[in-house]
Amino acid sequence: MYKCSLERMTDKIKTFSKFGATGNGGITRYSLSKEAIMARNEFKRRMEAIGAIIEVDDLANMYATLPGSDPNAKRIVMGSHVDSVKNGGNYDGILGVISAMEVLETIAEQKIPHKHPITAMIWTNEEGSLYPPAMMCSGIVCYDYLPDDIKEKFKEEDMMKSKSIIDGKTTFGEALEKSGFKGDRKYRLSPEKYLCMFETHIEQGPILEEAGNDIGVVDCVLGMFNYRLKFYGQAAHAGTFPMKKRKDAFYAASQALCYLHEEIDKLGYPDLVYTTGEVVCHPSVHTVIPDYFDFSFDARHEDPKVLEEVLAIVKSCANKAWAGCTCKVEKMWNRDTVYWDEKLVSYVKEAAEECGVSHQYIHSGAGHDAQFVAYMLPTTMIFVQSKNGLSHCEEEYSSPEQCTSGATVMLNAVLKADAE
Ligand SMILES: [Zn+2]
Fold it and tell me: From ligand 1's centre to the CA of 392, what distance in Å?
């Protein structure tokens, strides 16, 4: 059993928290921004200092590799992202990168023997907060292995045209060219060169904290569907048109949303989560009765049968009259539950046990780059407890001790995969 360094982890957490610091305890670090480039340069500097070989692919994904004793062995890769959402925290994504760095630094410092080359990696544009969609570059790299309906969303030429949400003009492709980090396609992650992948990430939920466990042995990413419910009414003047004659699309949608909550809650699945987080109201003027309203509906659960039951309720909305309006239900996309590689999951579990780190099995409700990689390579994830379950905000926090435990578990799990 090998241990990572609390001191070195603490130093990395502090250092990377400066790149894009908002002054309120968090960071804004869009992919390929000058703040993200500071983080990339720091990664490069520290990894070169331990003798790792740096490679950058044509999507600016960065790979730092320590050679193993067998030059022909495939690489074991660990990684996550350095970009954040607007006013995000100091842990989402970056923890997976500094944990991977810590594993390599520990291997170098303690001269831990290993057969396979071991790689720490930065994925470009995971959040998609400036250039949507999220998980863009893992989507492109793993494209050939993705299920068809996910594939459609990650066509490389479309991704290159993704426009900045700030200026509405600059494309991801242009930002990539300008970044100075556009490398060679031949360095992309591939099953020919890589054996398996580990991603350490904050939990982003309250389960580990409530159970008093520092580490989550992640077994799957939950299946989900994302639908859009669209309501069509009649616009008219807010002051002159009688209430009884109205076809108010907003009111119709609000009734449907309440109906969904009531009916879905009746199913009684405690692990089911569902969310309406995006709405469109037309014309969205205070003197006009809305003639159009639509809202998103995202539901997540491990069991596809549960999701089917929920979907039946969602679809039933199209057959009902809502405040005189009509309703259309449209599928945006869905994915089945992605299970991590059983052997890798067992290595993480054994490593946590041997290192005496408190842990439990847990599902991931959020998407991560690892989930696309899982279609290409054996893959797994390690979660670190999130204080109050908070993420994508400046209050994000995991203690340096918990972060170091996460890195220690990953180190020992990687060495098990190496010894296989
Ligand atoms: Zn993340």
Answer: 9
